[in-house]
Prior knowledge:
Layout: H1 5-10, E1 17-24, H2 36-44, E2 48-56, H3 68-81, E3 85-88, H4 94-104, E4 108-110, H5 111-122, H6 126-140, H7 166-203, E5 207-213, H8 219-227, E6 244-250, E7 255-261, H9 271-276, H10 278-285, E8 289-295, H11 301-314, E9 322-327, E10 342-348, E11 351-357, H12 366-378
Parallel strand pairs: 1-2, 1-3, 3-4, 5-7, 5-8, 8-9, 9-11
Antiparallel strand pairs: 6-7, 10-11
Helix pairs in contact: 2-5, 5-6, 6-7, 7-10
The structure holds guanosine-5'-triphosphate and magnesium ion.
Guanosine-5'-triphosphate is lined by residues 213, 215-221, 233-240, 264, 327-328, 330-331, 359-361.
Family: Belongs to the TRAFAC class OBG-HflX-like GTPase superfamily. HflX GTPase family.
Main location: cytoplasm
Binding site for GTP: 213-220, 238-242, 261-264, 327-330, 359-361
Amino acid sequence: MSSDTSAAASSAQQPARAVLVGVDLGPDASFDPTLDELALLAESAGDEVVARVIARRKAPDAALFVGSGKADEIKLLVDMHQAHGVIFDQALSPAQQRNLERHLGVPVADRTALILEIFAQRAQSHEGKLQVELARLQYLSTRLVRRWSHLERQRGGIGTRGGPGEAQIELDRRMIGERIKALKVRLDKVKRQRGTQRRARARSGTFRVSLVGYTNAGKSTLFNALVKARAYAANQLFATLDTTTRSMFLEQAGRAVSLSDTVGFIRDLPHKLVEAFEATLQEAADADLLLHVVDAASPVLQEQMEEVDRVLVEIGAADIPQVLVYNKVDALPESQRPRQAVDALERMPGVRTPRVFASALQGQGLDALRDLIAQAATGTEPADTQMTQDAGVADDEAPLPSPSGPAARDDDDSSPRSMQA
Ligand SMILES: Nc1nc2c(ncn2[C@@H]2O[C@H](COP(=O)(O)OP(=O)(O)OP(=O)(O)O)[C@@H](O)[C@H]2O)c(=O)[nH]1
Ligand SMILES: [Mg+2]
């Protein structure tokens, strides 16, 4: 970070130059060798990625996370690009972060800090802001209190006193502890209010549908297409933070259902963040039907789906019926595009999950999706004829998605064709 913090702070629009670091800790650890997701996170936070560094180790170094040779290499890149900071793809201990900052001479953030920063930038509603503040304070309370912004670009708040003394840190810690308590009380109240609203909706018999999925899968785009609304959709991670609910009339069912757009999930989502966002996530947990939106064109589709499933378990939503929406089929190479709109997967023994191939952007598969929602809302079973709808996305000769292809899962129990039998 340049020593001229006032200049950096006064031009909040100007991106901070960041060096990204990922450490490959062997086959068991979840590791993204491209660092693409971290780069997208950094860009979503307003940073400019100037270099990416990959290190390989059996275990993280206790002091620096990377070896000292690698740390020197990172320092060289920081100097060369005049970077403002370094962002690690993995969680750093407070001590590692401190040591690295001393070694590199610039602020060092980890993935969690980066995600928290994005959430802080995005929070719009009162509730969203409370949730973000709670998550940040919980993260900060375990570290030396030194900054708010992940790359120290903001001024004010607790963060920017240069090198606080131990007494100051103690004071900050105590204040933070009290603030956390106060926030939890206020969020509890929000939670109770939401609970009351939900019970009222449940009494009114409204069938509740919730969009869930990995961040950037296209939930908001699909939400907009389905309810003809204009929720904020963008090629950013965590574009949506607040839950939006709209009523959607289904001709097929002759009734309206409520549809909610929710915050996206991400790999290694800090547990504390999930906890802080409980009130928002509860909306998904109380739904009658989940539309699990996946980016069918993502090379890491499988991992993303598993991550979403993990969070659903964590918030107690694992047993809610799901429809898988394989979105962005328009972005698949011609040869991998599915030929029909709907099939079903046996994701758990004995449970067939309907799957819709869709393009929220181009409006494909939406009718099939509405049909499935209507069936769920009226408690009717999908008829075989409805399972063979033409997706209109590929000609008859196009091959079906292969189990190894991006639009299929390994546990795909049947080829989509068998549904037509
Ligand atoms: N090619 C293609 N792009 C899509 C489609 N649906 C959404 N996108 C793009 O994917 C990006 C993310 O879309 P969003 O709707 O914001 O995704 P989201 O899941 O709401 O993301 P978060 O709110 O950030 O979690 C945007 O750039 C969309 O234009 C689709 O069907 N095809
Ligand atoms: Mg969104």
